Amino acid sequence: KHFEGLTPNISSGFWKMGGGVLEMLKKDVYTENEVWDFSKVQIYPFKCAFRYPVDA
Fold it and tell me: CA 1, CA 28: separation in Å to the nearest integer?
């Protein structure tokens, strides 16, 4: 369940541009089921998460 909504967010550029990361984390199954302690969330800048080949 954790990865179910990932692909549409990659395709739309949501993750690439940052977007509402906290909102996504609030809705994550791990947060909803208290596996993650949302009050301790830390977000760090990250340069490249998804790489695609360059069209030549």
Answer: 9
9 belongs to a structural domain: yes
Which residues constitute the domain of residue 22? 1-51
Domain membership of residue 56 (yes or no) is no
In the chain, the N- to C-terminal Cα span, in Å, equals 36
Query: Per-residue confidence of the chain (56 residues) as pLDDT tens digits?
Result: 767 777 777 777 666 555 578 888 888 999 999 999 999 988 777 666 666 776 76
8 A C-beta contact, residue 3 and residue 28? no
